[in-house]
Structure formats: C-alpha cells, structure tokens
Amino acid sequence: MTLTHLKLTWIAGAAFMMAACNVDAQQPVQPGIALNTTQTDIDMSRIKAIDIAAPKAPQKDSARDYHGQNLADKYFWMKDPDYPTVDDEDVLNYLNEENAYYQTFLKPHTSLVDTLFEEFKGRTDETEESVPYIKNGYEYRWYFEEGAEYRTRARKDLATGDETVFMDETALAEGHDYFVIGGWTISPDNRYLAYSYDTAGDERYQVKVRDLTTGDYLPDVLSDVQGNVEFAADSATLVYALLEKERWHAKNIKTHTLGTPQSEDGTLYTEDDDGFFIGFGLTSSNKYFIIVSNQGEIQESYVIAADLSGELTQIAPRAAGFTQTIDHADGYFYILANDTHPNSRLVRVADSAPAMENWTTLRAGSDDVYLMNLQTFADEIVLKSRKNGYETVELIGYPDADSTKLKSHSVKFPEVIFTASIGVNPEFDQDKIRLNYESMVTPSTVFDYDPESKTLETRKVQNIPSGYDKSQYQTERLMIPARDGTLIPVSIVSKKGFKKDRSHPMWLYGYGAYSATITPRFSTLRLSALDRGFSYAIAHVRGGSMMGYDWYLDGKLTKRTNTFNDFVDVAEGLVERGYVQAGNISASGRSAGGELMGAATIQAPDMWRSVNLGVPFVDVLNTMLDETLPLTPPEWKEWGNPITDAAAYDLIKSYSPYDNIEARDYPPMFVSGGLNDPRVTYWEPAKWTAKMREMKTDDNLLVMRINMGAGHFANSGRYGRLRDYAEEYAFMLLAHGIEE
After folding, report:
1. Spatial separation of the C-alpha atoms in residues 584 and 580, rounded to whole Å
2. Which of 339, 677, 724, 736 is catalytic?
3. Does the annotation mark 591 as catalytic?
4. Do the Cβ atoms of 617 and 596 come closer than 8 Å?
5. Domain assignment of residue 681, given as a range
6. What is the CATH number of the domain that holds 582?
7. Is residue 401 over pLDDT 50?
8. Is 333 helix (H, G, I), strand (E, B) or coil?
9. Quick check: is 626 in a domain?
10. Are 618 and 595 a contacting pair, CB within 8 Å?
11. Nearest-5° angle of CA 98, CA 104, CA 105?
12. Which one of the listed residues 591, 610, 656, 672 is annotated catalytic?
C-alpha cells in the first residue's frame, strides 16, 4: 500500500454521503412532489411533533470559569464521570427515553421506511463481487453470498489454479451485533493472515493470526490495536499501533513476533506529544515502512527497511511545519510536500540520504493545481491532482538520475465532472493501472488503464438489479459567491425535466473540515430522493480542499466561520437561481458536517425544511476544553485551544452550535449518535437534543436515535446500514409532506 498523505486526524464525517449514497437504480417518479409541480402547489408546513410528550432531560447546575468568563452548562452531567465506561443511571435513562420516543415517531411510518428499504435493497447487487487483483502469485477477490451482510474473501493459487476462502467475514461476525474488519494483511511468504476486528464500534481493535496452510489460528491475540496491521519482510513479525488503555490514542508503534505474548512486543516508535496522531504503512515497492506523526498541517515522517533492520531515518521533521505524501521506487523516495507551496510540489530524494536538504524538485507547486496523491510503480508514477475543482489522474515517467525533466500524460475520462481515484494496485510491476471512477450520474466503475495505448478497459460497472437509466438524470457544477465574494463550487444532480422555477424540494449536503472533500459521487440510495422530485446538491465549502489546500486553511481556526457562511450562502444562491424555494431545503451532514448542520440551523433556521445532524460535533467549546479526551489535544490545531487562548475561547463560543441555541423556532431535526463513538462522543448529540427541546419555541419534530451498541459508523452490516438510511430518508420525505 502507499502511505498516501497518511492524514491521521480523525476525519469522521466525510464518509456519510459516500456510504449513504453508494449502493442506485431507475425507479418511476414516486407520489409526492412531481417533476411538473408548480411553486403554488408546495405545502410549506413542516413535520410536527408527535402527540406524546417528548423526553425532558434533567437539568443540573454546572459552572466553570475560563478567562474571566463563566461557562454554565445544565447538561454537562451527560458525560458519564466513568467514561469511557457509560453506566450512569440518569444518562442511560435519558438516552433510552429518547430512543423510545424515536420509535414512537417511527411506528406509524413503518410502511414508508419499508418502501425505502426495499428500494435501496432492490438496487443492491446481493451477490456483488470485486474485480480480482494479483499479488505475490495469488489472485484475490471478494464477494457477497446472497443475503449476506459481510464479504467473503478468497484467493486463487496461480500455480495450481486452486481457490480457497481465506476470510469469511459473515462467519466471523456471527454472534455479534456489530462487526467491522479494521485491516488485514497476508505475510510475504503467503502463509499467514492477520486481521483486526471491532465488535463494539469503539474502534479499539483486536488482531488474530491464522495459518493459511493448516487453517488453524495461532495463539497470538493482540488487544487495543488502532486498526492497521502489517507484516514485516520476515513474515514472522507484525507491526501495529497500540492504543493507550484509558485513551483512544496510540503513542507507540509496536512490533510483535509470532508465538510470543503481546507483553513482550518491541517498540518501533514512540510519540511523546499527546497532540499528535501516529500511523504507518508500507511503500508500494514493499521495501520500506513509513511512520508518520501528524497534527493538522504539521507532519513528521520516518522510514525503516521493511525487514526492520537498521534505525529509523527521518524524512522530514515536525519543526519544518508541513505535510508529506511519500512513496518509493528504484532507490528513490518520491514525495508530495507542501513546504514551498500550499498545493504541494513533487520531489525526489535518494533513499540512502533522504534528509530534506537533499530533496530535488521535479514539479513545483502551482496556484491552480493541487497535488493530492501519488503511487509509484516500476515504470511510472501515478499522480492524482485537482485543477480548479476538477480531478485529474496523470502518469509520469521516471526522470534520469541526473535529470528533473518529466514526461507525462493525463488519463482521458468520459466526463468533465467526476470522481476518480487510484484503485487496488498491490503489485509494484504491472502492465496496467487500476483506477476507480464515478460521477453523480455514472455508477461506480473500475477501469484498467493501459499506459502504452492510453486506453481505459472497463472491468466492472456497479450492477443495479432493479435497473438504472443514466439518460434520465443530469449533473452540473455551479460557482456561487459567498458573502465575502469567494466563489463556492456546488455539484448538483437532478432528474431530467427539472425546472428552475423553485417548485422542487432540494437536499443540500455539506462537510467542510480536515481538508476532506465530498466529491461528486454516484448514489443508488439518492435516487429515491431524485425520483420523488428532489434535486441534490453538495456545497463544497471551505474547510475541505475542493479548490486546493488554501481552501482548507480558509475554513479552520480563526477562519472557521467561513465554512458555515459558505453553506448558508450557497443555499441562498440556489434559491436566487430558481433551484428551490427558501424553506424547502433539507440539509444534512455528519460529524464535523454535523457541526456545520448545527451552525447552519442556528444561523438560518428558516431556510431549512428539515436538518439531519449525523453524529454531530456540536458541543465544540466543551470538547476543546476537555483535554482528558484523547482526541482533543490533536484537534487544537484544527479548532484552536480555548484553555490557553482567550481569543480562541471567544471565537469557538461564538459559533459552537450547542452554546448558541436560543429561544426561537427551528426546523424539524433528526439527530443520531453512538454510545461507543470515540470520535464524536454520545453526549454531544444528547446535549444538543436536550437543550433544543428546552429552548425551541416551535412544535416541529425533533428526534434522536442513539445506537446503544455501536460507534461513529452505526450499523456495520450492509442491510443494517440500509435500514438506518431508510429511516433517515423517511424523516426527510415526511418533512416535505411525502408519505410514500
């Protein structure tokens, strides 16, 4: 694998629209707001509270002083004092009451949820399988058995033609309400399988090792693993990151010799600063491990031979204050570094002396082109970039040892607005490059690219059993000015026949943090909204990196409010352009995107028909004040440190959604969370919901669903996730008066 920018901040919400939008098919236009509906037909009433009384959370006095200011919080008690153990009776009672209230809301709408679930399931290939790839003499693939929640993984011995199942995830998940594979790897000698798994949703993984020649498990079991696991070149040593016992934070990269107890494991690297995340990976050449310690825009990197011989060698120190993406080929490290330009330059350095002073620039940084990712192969480098918000994949030939001149060409894709990525390419020397491709109207596609003929071979197109007609949908890119004049990209998809007469409902999605970009991808689930008359838009707000690395910098720390303003301004711009009527937009976002939803709800409550706050990071001030939380110190570089910095305290308090709830009307809200979530703790959505219930003056529906047995990503099985999404879609549709 390539250590692609190993961005180790806990990017939490970018995956929601990928997951919630990637499973699609042609459905007839459903009853509700049809494509020819006129503005005068729109009923702007919102979904009202159900007849039974909503839960009322206890209030307990709590006040703390910071920078001469008093911070009162009547719901501060919702953080269990024994956290991460959650056994406080008042906490559990409140969460259970909210879940019961949610089920009461859901019960009369079971038919709509079932309808949506069946639509989602009908677009799901129940026996989907991957395109095979070759690694080290074996051909690997995964597939789903019909009706299975999880994958089965198999490999074929290319010498004998025999195929065997090496990991049956469905069997491994048996007996667990929640099951996720964190990572898996097979030893270089092809004998051992090591995999990490989580059965609680708290992202504290265990590792098991299986001898594939006998089928037996080794006695080795590693606990408190961060997730990723790799074999060293000797096939007898595992490398992993060890989480602290009382904190969801890894401070040590460990080495484990098979057949020995975990207590005897060695330490490859130790990070002494609680403000840094750590991680590791193998280069594409399989010759080096790269170890990275990361805090926001600052990254420190080391390399060590894959056989773990020798000492760690530093690539770049944290004092230099920039990030790197590193890979290796034929005696050189190739690095994307944003030390001289925010959008990064491409450099090369000999692996025998990789210190910064020896770096040679192969391509300088550019204001227009954001260099995002690279992977090295035997004959070329594959480089992914984004120019003015549009993606490019480029193949670059290696220069001579004494030259910096590059020969390159870009892959020609069939559309202008799309999402592409470097696919699964485990062999360093291969004739073709595997690429992933999709757009908002084109299902997920796997291509093999031939560098010689410069042609794309289609290996797989997402199968949609219930059918899909691409010609019935359309996508476009807009640039809408924010209040400071900055043009914000917006990607839109709708059904053909869509009229810009403000007659249609809209679903607007946003994230905007950690430089993570919500790209214009395909979604089978989303079709259930499009076929009911919705348009769907992604606001590529600042805080992400759609328009380059500066786009990220312009949405963090002292510029954080740009993210919120951009989202509201995009909504207003879409109203001005006739796409939707104000008050007829349903907005959604997850994690940091949930923070965005909270801020947008506070700033412009009348704009939204409904708001979905998924595992929302809404209690920003309290979380950034709590340095006992393992993820808080590393996040100060993203949000600011309100403990030591009075200006940061004032700024965060001014926009923290929870702290800015006031007595007024708000739109209907769907709030979700997970009891075991280590990224956005359960009390954030719970406190938001409790305070909203206390303060809001309307009778619009507010519900909260807390998964009591999972974490940040809720249901782990594919059908369980579809059921969750069906419930969320149902809430949104009901807010627009659509009941079937």
Report:
1. 7
2. 677
3. yes
4. no
5. 61-122+467-735
6. 3.40.50.1820
7. yes
8. strand
9. yes
10. yes
11. 90
12. 591
